[in-house]
Amino acid sequence: MTPRVVFPNKLLPYLLVAPQLAITLIFFYWPASQALQQSLQREDPFGLKSQFVGLANFRKVLADPNYINALQVTVIFSVATAFVAMAVALLLAVQADKVVRGKGFYRTLMIWPYAVAPAIAGMLWLFLFSPSIGTFAVLMRNLGIAWDPLLNGNQAMALVVAAASWKQISYNFLFFVAGLQAIPKSLIEAAAIDGARETKRFWTIVFPLLAPTTFFLLVINTTYAFFDTFGIIHAVTGGGPGKATETLVYKVYNDGFVNLVLGDSAAQSVILMVIVIALTAVQFRYVERKVHYG
């Protein structure tokens, strides 16, 4: 009979998890509770007086055409960003996995962009595609392409999607490379011996075995597109032109910190939190069913 392992110190485990619990309580649960409380109140811009109004803020927000527009923009932006970031990262990971010499060097180069802060990433893309001085903007203008994301909403959306995707590609690349390394090479070699072409080997063997990694990255990229792209949008377009790139998280900032409509902003943050939690739950409930953990 295997002897039972008993941890000798009963207090030490609680001390080890205490810092993480404190961070979670201070930076997540406490702000979330404050937002929930503010969403049920009407406050003056300075926060000196408040009046309990129940669900009035939520009804006002959901009836606002600008909020519906922000919701539509968020859906388009999130789907496009997650798809582009994951697709490009998977392509680069597959190509990097084929490299024989200097494999570590190429992988290191691919990881570097993740260290760039979102606001800096946004400024880099803004300088490259600025209508007046941007290198690529001048190149497109010489090719006869009318490029002006400051006036064209579709071009502004394409620019922020490209910037946000570029920022996240390195993160996805890391996990896809790790997933590719975990796939037994004998399976791929056996398929090659049987006459399966490279494309067929990828879709029938490699990609199904990457399903757990792909599902994990789908959840992470969705959350990233909803929350962590604020700095990129703020630096590149500021939600414009004409609210064409104003996502839900950016509208929370505009209404709360710029326009000082605290109650509406708090209600929007609560709705956004519920949307992300519900979307993640749906992904785990339905998408994970199709994931095969080998």
Automatic annotation (TrEMBL):
For the keyword Phosphoprotein, the answer is: no
Q: What UniProt keywords apply to this chain's record, in alphabetical order?
A: Cell inner membrane, Cell membrane, Membrane, Transmembrane, Transmembrane helix, Transport
List, alphabetically, the Gene3D superfamilies matched.
Answer: MetI-like
**What's its membrane topology?**
Multi-pass membrane protein
Record keyword Transmembrane present: yes
Q: Return the InterPro entries for the record.
A: MetI-like, MetI-like_sf, UgpAE/MalFG_permease
Q: Name the major location.
A: membrane
- Report the residue ranges that make up the ABC transmembrane type-1 domain in this protein: 71-283
Give TM segment ranges. 12-30, 70-94, 115-139, 159-180, 201-220, 266-287
Can you say where in the cell this protein is located? Cell inner membrane; Cell membrane
**Which Pfam families does the annotation name?**
BPD_transp_1
Q: What does this protein do?
A: Part of the ABC transporter complex UgpBAEC involved in sn-glycerol-3-phosphate (G3P) import. Probably responsible for the translocation of the substrate across the membrane.
Assembly and partners are described as: The complex is composed of two ATP-binding proteins (UgpC), two transmembrane proteins (UgpA and UgpE) and a solute-binding protein (UgpB).
Family to which this protein belongs: Belongs to the binding-protein-dependent transport system permease family.
From the Swiss-Prot or TrEMBL record, give the protein name.
sn-glycerol-3-phosphate transport system permease protein UgpA
Which organism is this protein's natural source? Mesorhizobium liriopis
